[in-house]
């Protein structure tokens, strides 16, 4: 069943259509990837879904109900959580308190400070940040600040999490750890949307991918199909990626 369904989303900035009628759906339990060149509209799409931007057109359904136009905190309480491409922790609060803020504003049922902190502690455990709970955000590495974003989203008790470039700027080892974290979320039954330029992560994680280009959908499908689509290679991946990817695949007709 589709957990999230977006129809004909349109966002305009002045004369520019940052999203020009994008439709897609995300199945419950899947990892759905959104890729495309810089400026293609990926973050705008996420801002449209999480109601950071008002839609100029289109509609959004979540779990069968029309949620178009609902405010961000209503959406979080329904179970839609997100991270931000530019990580933005509250600098005067420690890591644990930053995560508790997610529970406080975004969780549908938790009412007391003790409950928010308990939700924060659970999220810190899941993201491997528990040993750093008492640190202040500026003391964290970028990889840990990205984990903090994930933990804050988890503390909302979401059903779907939308990730905006949680791998960006991380080194090889940190990317592998983040891939494992996202896999563990899927295994726990969460639905995930990831916007990502790190193709290794996209290919390791996604069940399906949508490619955006100039605010419109260029392609959609299984990762293997999408990355060998000539339009996608031309607009985004480039010939070098296509050749490297093709040579990494078993030869057609070869033994499985
Ligand atoms: N708040 C805004 N005001 C005006 N224009 C905006 C705003 N947000 C995004 N845009 C424009 O919308 C287009 C899509 O931007 P968006 O940030 O969604 O791209 P993106 O696919 O996330 O790119 P990147 O991979 O670099 O993060 C760009 O032309 C951008 O300049
Ligand atoms: Mg972006």
Automatic annotation (TrEMBL):
**CDD domains attached here?**
ABC_Mj1267_LivG_branched
InterPro entries registered for this protein in UniProt: AAA+_ATPase, ABC_AA/LPS_Transport, ABC_transporter-like_ATP-bd, BCA_ABC_TP_C, P-loop_NTPase
Q: Where in the numbering of this chain does the ABC transporter domain appear? A: 4-239
Q: Which PROSITE patterns match?
A: ABC_TRANSPORTER_2
State a single Pfam family of this protein: ABC_tran
* GO BP terms, alphabetized: D-alanine transmembrane transport; L-alanine transport; L-isoleucine import across plasma membrane; L-valine import across plasma membrane
Give yes or no: UniProt keyword Secreted.
no
- Any transmembrane segments, and where? none
SUPFAM superfamilies tied to this protein: P-loop containing nucleoside triphosphate hydrolases
Cite the entry's keywords alphabetically.
ATP-binding, Nucleotide-binding, Transport
* Example of a GO MF term: ATP binding
Its Gene Ontology cellular component terms are:
plasma membrane
Name the chain's protein: ABC transporter ATP-binding protein
Q: Which organism is it from?
A: Xanthobacter tagetidis
